[in-house]
Amino acid sequence: MAENEINTLVVRKPCFGLPTGCTQCLSAYLYLKFAQLPFQLDFHLNYPDSDQIPYFEVGDYVAYNNEKGGVTECLKRDFGVVDLDIGISSLPDWISTKAMLTTWLADALAYELWVGFEGYSSSPAYTIYYSDLPWPLGKVLFWRKARWIKQKHGITNENAELKKEEIYRRASSAYGALSTWLGEQSYLFENRPSSLDATFLAHGLVVLQALPESSVLQPKLLEHGNLVRYVQQCKTELIDASPTPTYAWHTAGSSSTSSRSTSSSKTKTKTKSKPKREKTEEEKTFKRRSKYFVAAQLVAVVVFITIMTSFDDAEVGLDE
Amino acid sequence: MTHPLNHNAAQNDDVVHPEPEDDEQEDEDAEEENDDDDDVLPNLRAPPSPASKLQQQRFKVETLARRLSSEMVPIRVHDIVVNGNTKTKDWVIEAELKGIETATTMQDLMRACEAAIARLQALEIFDSCKVRLEPGPKELPNTANVVVDVVEANNTVSGECGVYTKPSTSSWTLECALKYKNLFGYGDIWDTSLAYGGSQATELSLGVYAPLIKRLLTPIVARIMLVSQDWQEFSSYKEQLLGASLGLISTKHHDLVYTLGWRTLTDPSQTSSRSIRRQLGHGLLSSLKYIFKMDRRNSPIRPTRGYAFLSTTHLGGLSPDHRSLRFLRQEFDVRLAVPFGFYNTALNLGISAGAVFPWGQGFMNKTSPLPERFYLGGDFSPVCTLGGPTTLWGFKTRGLGPTEPRRQSRNRDDDNNGDSPGWDFIGGDLAVTAFADLSFDLPIKWLREHGIHGHVFAGSGNAAKLTQHEYKHFSPRKFLESFRTSVGCGIVIPTRLFRLEGNYFHILRKDEHDRGKTGFRFSFSAPS
Q1: Cβ-defined contact of B470 to A261 (cutoff 8 Å)
Q2: pTM to 2 decimals?
């Protein structure tokens, strides 16, 4: 199989013992693991503020995370990846669980990473998102993201403590509800993996592995033993186990690009030489002719002015 | 108005007056020596009539002119006085008066004064500059005092608008600038400019030009800029650079510029090919660019004799942070113009080559930065575009070189669209171009008088990717065999500012995805 045809999930930096430190990227990774789709990882390290990452490539086809419900939805719809949510996405509790995971828990982790630590380099966000960027760039992007989070939650100097308590209280409530919902099951819904399991497990892995002991969020998760066991089990089965069925495991070789070689410069097999519609051809011909007409007019004016000016100079010279 | 020789003329019979010169030239004054005689015998002679005075002055000037043209008139500069500068520092003006102090003859002194006036006017901070010669002290014969009268510009704010060419991006830019002159009295010129050009390039910058800072040999040029360039149509990415540049050395042959900037590559259309996609993001540019240029051609617009050589070395990654963009880019450009001696025929030959590669740990696995690669093509004539391998007749902007297929969509709606997604030109790490251009006068006299001439030409070029182990697949033979070639003929209309060509191109060889077409096209080129 050509190198370009290999399923590739492009994610952010691997760190803290995880294949990637970014929760969205890890969620996509875990979903593909659940779906048992063979793929390899590649890394995009210099674009921390991109909403396109993670993206999935196979050949010249790409599914970006900022399209049509996210990379997981694109994979299900356009790449034929098995839909693990069939039969459960219509359940009443599905939406509320999804909302809890994508708002309360996601907001709490984002707050902890970008606002909860003193200093830029003491936050795990530095390692996950900015460690491969030169210091001034990473610092400015970190500050910009922190400012965005504060604006999103309406945090000011006056209400900072109140907002912080509110964010962590909601996270606690969410952990409690999830713990109650999970119980002793292996997965959140009908005892089988789904995209929500991938979402929560990604969150849980980052909270337990990446956050330091001084974290506020980590102890709140540790209060719920079944959730911790659930996360640890996932780590053991999907991450620590021998990597099958993936093609290869690549580590970042440079600060700005992946370590894989790019495709050859003249790939002709991918060309789709479909005949163009006549209407488009006519429009292009018309546009080209109109450009020539305008250019010819402009050239005539310029030449006229230049030549006439040189005529005047010659006449002045003769007079002198 | 006095002339230094007139004091000494009191001691000998040879009184000379300088011939009146232009206001732009030095003003030389001549005084009547007959005033002494009038003082001695005031009652014996009537005051000279105006006509008589004029005649005497004319005689003195003619005598001086004869003397200047026939012999070296010795003179020594005693003192230099600067008048009229209220804001400009004295040493700024005095620094432009070099050569005057050391003049030993009248002829040298006049030449030095002309050069000084030209340098002072070039500072663009004075409305007028005049240099006068006055006699030195009576006890010091053959001496002169040089008096510099300047009038500082009333309007310190001025505006400029112009159209420039940027061969590196194969585009034109319209630039409007607002200048504030002499803010601190150092001859400094501050400007804010806004430029808009092809490929939707926009630039907003603030700069300062300080011609003289004490103990520094060359002017200081510093700029802060925000540049954005849209390459979406050709390579599916947009580039933005926020940074500063500092001109360290700027002489006739040498240029050294340091640039520090934050560069961001984005793809809003999300259609980029694989290698473009992997380079999107942020990078820190900290680089030094050295240009050595020697242009001995008789004309940059229509060279008919002479040669030119250009070498550009661009080293990126000059920061302690190993995560900045690290690359080394080298270009060479050699030109030769050979006259044939009939019908003003001349053969212009040129060859350009360039290479770029990353450096640092693990450089073998890295790729060269996208904006630093070589992109060939554009509607510029290579005859007057001196700046490395950039263009080839007949090919559009970024119209030849390595390509990659753009993203394809698996959406069912897009399947109904018959258009191919297209190809991205990803640039080459190695590029070579060469051309031969034979220009000749046309038989019509009116065309000859206006410099309009004909030419036939041939050009060839190629670019290849070498980084990320692609060099293993590179062979010089394959590289030579895949050279794109074009020939053609046309009419050239050289103007004062640019070279306009109306050409017919015939593409002899191109690759499947190159954007070059046989046909007729106009091109505008400005000398660089």
Answers
A1: yes
A2: 0.78
